[in-house]
Amino acid sequence: MKLANKLAFITGGGRGIGRAIAFAFAREGASVALAARTRAQVDSVANEIASEFGVETLALECDVADAENVGRAFARASEQFGGGPDILVNNAGIAETAPFTKTDEAMWQRHLAVNLTGTFHCTSAALPEMLERGWGRIINIASIAGKTGAPYISAYAASKHGVLGLTRSLALEVGANGITVNAICPGYVDTEMTSRGIANIVAKTGKSADDALSTLKRASPQNRLVTAAEVAALALLLASEEGRGINGQAINVDGGTVLF
Ligand code: NAD
Questions:
Q1: Which atom of ligand 1 approaches the CA of 15 most closely?
Q2: Residue 76 class from Cβ within 10 Å (0-12 exposed, 13-18 middle, 19+ buried)?
Q3: Ligand 1 touching residue 95 (CB < 6 A)
Q4: Virtual CA dihedral for 111, 222, 231, 19, nearest 10 degrees?
Q5: Which member of 156, 184, 197, 236 is catalytic?
Q6: 116 lies in the same domain as 201
Q7: I need a surface site. Which of 19, 59, 101, 156 has the fewest CB within 10 A?
Q8: Which letter does DSSP use for residue 226 in this model?
Q9: Residue 243 and residue 236: Cα distance in Å, rounded?
Q10: 156 catalytic, yes or no?
Q11: Tens place of pLDDT per residue across the chain (260 aa)
């Protein structure tokens, strides 16, 4: 068991990548606290995991963009588990598309608030105890849009570039304290977020859903979407003892779409 006696706090754990990471960690013995906006989804994942793996779980309704919400969620987790998380996965995220001229300030702020400031809030809540303990893992689910740009995603890409800046700086700051801070940069993953992207392409271009899906697949030289389980496999390596040499990295899981 690679994560026995570890507590993982996973944001956006109710579906998609966060759910897959929660399963991968629980399979290796971790207790998991799942925090997301949609209560019913985190409840159901927490129940499934508890009955399948017999680990302790906690479902928390939490908007990561709201510092008070995050403070309450971490306090509740600490109360149940007797301490803060050993592993934090900043996975909660939103993605909307629009040409820059239609990207209004509200859309811009939403992306920064959830994707970037949400990561800041949860990291601020988790880090002090990791420093005290002299062990910690912070895993930020960024995107290849954190490394490169694409049309119609300026707000999303800016927020994910920000996540990489935070990851790299914090990794250097806490590297001597037994804590690693890394980012995972997926390409298109087969989750609801991508299904919504496909629906959006269909609505805006009149393409069929199959054509839209083919376009997204072709962004990868493997001509396919990545699976959430593939992202989770890397998260597990980063979370484990074996991953301790990997710090400050932004690792792509994209089939080779982006080569830096
Ligand atoms: P998803 O939409 O299926 O799930 C997102 C999760 O985040 C949900 O559980 C949702 O409730 C939660 N969430 C959203 N806003 C929140 C908030 N304010 N507070 C708390 N929780 C919130 O998406 P996914 O595909 O599983 O994406 C997970 C992460 O991976 C995101 O950060 C996303 O940007 C990133 N990512 C996804 C893809 C992709 O193609 N799906 C590609 C690259 C990166």
A1: 9
A2: middle
A3: yes
A4: 80
A5: 156
A6: no
A7: 101
A8: B
A9: 9
A10: yes
A11: 999 999 999 999 999 999 999 999 999 999 999 999 989 999 999 999 999 999 999 999 999 999 999 999 999 999 999 999 999 999 999 999 999 999 999 999 999 999 999 999 999 999 999 999 999 999 999 999 999 999 999 999 999 999 999 999 999 999 999 999 999 999 999 999 999 999 999 999 999 999 999 999 999 999 999 999 999 999 999 999 999 999 999 999 999 999 99
CATH number of the structural domain spanning residue 70: 3.40.50.720
Is beta strand 31-36 parallel, antiparallel or unpaired with respect to 57-61? parallel
Whole-number Cα distances in Å, 40 to 59, 246, 259: 9, 35, 38
Task: Please report, to the nearest 10 degrees, the dihedral formed by the alpha carbons of residues 232, 236, 238, 241 taken in order.
Answer: 180
16: left (phi over 0), alpha (psi -120 to 50) or beta: left
Domain co-membership, 98 together with 182: yes
What domain range includes position 207? 189-225
**Gap from CA of 176 to ligand 1 centroid (Å):** 31
